[in-house]
């Protein structure tokens, strides 16, 4: 019996060496994402590399002895440092603290990738309207979900393809025309401008849906989209959408700097809420923060939270923003 237990521990320790080595290698290669967009794909899974490193440490402490324990611990600690180095900038970056503000100065925005396979758009629309939002940015909009929101009193502001903006009031005129040469290069997006709650200058909202970072077309989309935002005054601008980029990717870090806006979310996992597995829709714990909300310096965050499952593979984000006095 003792021999069997020892053999089992040896197998587990060997697997831990393999897992630890692979996670360390992936985390180290991910650092190449600073210069290579293909290696940057590895950064998105930094939490997985960190979890593998912690498993390696756990096996070393509980199952191994002598040189095997030392090897597992060294491998695991190096993996934690490599993967943690990718995640740490998101957890330590400076975001202005939330404030309390009078309701008259506030707006509420909901960001939601509704998912084209959403089987219950009515339930999703019920929850969204119950939150009394001023603006809703939607990606993967279906006719059924559009009709459900409009039937509940929200105004539809058409965007490109399946990205749109809904609002409680009618939008104002666009502040400018999009250059005709940019239309084919831009990602799916929608834009609208609205009267400000303080009676001052209008504020603008831009919704966006970038394609997957594994497609080289996203690299160009990011720059053309940033150039579009350059046409807006940054002060009261709000940008929200499904960026398909995690905060530990170098691509999103560069985009954060390029947009000149403060990203208000911090490591809030929004995907996957559910997925089809072997023909069944399975509830899953969200692992990747890929939905984001940016706002200009005139806005202060009052509250930011993740909403419930609404029949989509994405969770919604809900944010209350207040204009600086």
Walk me through this protein's architecture.
With 325 residues, the protein is an alpha+beta fold. It folds into two domains: 91 residues; 221 residues, Deoxyribonuclease I, Chain A, CATH 3.60.10.10. It is built from eight helices and 13 strands. The mean pLDDT is 93.
Short description:
With 325 residues, the protein is of the alpha+beta class.
Task: Please give a handful of descriptors for the protein shown.
single chain; 325 residues; alpha+beta; 13 strands; Deoxyribonuclease I, Chain A
Give me the CATH fold name of the largest domain. Answer: Deoxyribonuclease I, Chain A
Strand content: 15-25%
Query: What is the H level of CATH, i.e. the homologous superfamily of the largest domain?
Result: Endonuclease/exonuclease/phosphatase
In the sheet with the most strands, the strands line up as 3-4-2-1-13-12
Number of helices: 8
The strand count comes to 13
**Biggest β-sheet strands, sense, barrel:** 6 strands, mixed
Assign the CATH architecture of the largest domain: 4-Layer Sandwich
Which shape, going by the Cα principal axes?
A: elongated
Structural class: alpha+beta
């Amino acid at each position: 019996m003792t021999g069997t237990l020892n053999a089992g521990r040896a197998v587990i320790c060997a697997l831990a060496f393999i897992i630890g080595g692979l996670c360390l290698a992936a985390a180290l290669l991910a650092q190449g994402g600073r210069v290579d967009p293909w290696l940057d794909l590895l950064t998105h899974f930094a939490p997985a590399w960190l979890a593998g490193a912690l498993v390696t440490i756990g096996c070393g402490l509980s199952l191994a002895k002598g040189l095997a324990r030392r090897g597992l611990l060294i491998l695991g600690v190096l993996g934690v440092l490599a993967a943690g180095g990718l995640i740490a900038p998101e957890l330590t970056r400076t975001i202005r603290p939330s404030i309390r503000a009078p309701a008259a100065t506030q707006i509420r925005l909901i960001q939601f990738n509704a998912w084209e396979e959403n089987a219950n758009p009515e339930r999703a629309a019920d929850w969204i309207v119950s939150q009394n939002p001023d603006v809703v940015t939607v990606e993967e909009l279906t006719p059924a979900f559009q009709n459900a929101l409009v039937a509940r009193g929200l105004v539809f502001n058409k965007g490109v393809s399946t990205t749109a903006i809904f609002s409680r009031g009618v939008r104002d005129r666009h502040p400018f025309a999009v250059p005709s040469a940019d239309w084919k290069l831009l990602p799916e997006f929608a834009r609208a401008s609205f009267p400000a709650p303080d009676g001052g200058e209008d504020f603008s909202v831009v919704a966006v849906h970038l394609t997957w970072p594994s497609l080289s077309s996203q690299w160009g989309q990011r720059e053309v989209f940033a150039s579009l935002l350059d046409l807006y005054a940054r002060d009261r601008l709000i940008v929200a959408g499904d960026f398909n980029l995690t905060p530990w990717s170098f691509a999103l870090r560069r985009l954060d700097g390029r947009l000149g806006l403060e990203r208000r979310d911090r490591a809030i996992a929004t995907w996957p809420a559910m997925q089809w597995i072997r023909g069944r829709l399975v509830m899953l714990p969200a692992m990747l923060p890929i939905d984001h909300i940016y706002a200009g310096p005139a806005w202060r965050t009052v509250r930011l939270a993740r909403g419930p499952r609404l029949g989509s593979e994405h969770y919604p984000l809900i944010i209350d923003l207040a204009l600086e006095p």
